[in-house]
Amino acid sequence: MHQPDYKKRPGGKLNYILDFANTTNGGDEQDWLEAGETITSAQITPIADITILDSSVNLSGNQVEVWVADGIKGVTYAIECTVTTSKAIPNTAQFRTAVIELLITIT
Q1: What is the DSSP string of 39-95?
Q2: In this model, does residue 88 exceed pLDDT 90?
Q3: What is the CATH number of the domain that holds 52?
Q4: Is residue 22, in this structure, part of any structural domain at all?
């Protein structure tokens, strides 16, 4: 099983930034976007029952912000982000968030 990319509390609301920016400008597998290419739309799809509150593409067109809420403690959820680019190219990325109980000890 894959390790989760992120963690959150069961009742918490948390935003995640998915960065599709071109990192090397050399066609590396890390490059989601080509130089000058931007995201024109994004569709967020939870693979299981977790709440997606909102999502948006940032002004520079290379990041998608996703707000996630709720979830059951101990469950890891997969969430897909399908983007369409300024070159009309669709691409899908997936990330995982684990819902955990954060214990805080005050001494």
Answers
A1: EEEEEEEESSS-EEEEEEE-TTSSEEEEEEE---TT-EEEEEEEEEETTS-EEEEEE
A2: yes
A3: 2.60.40.10
A4: yes
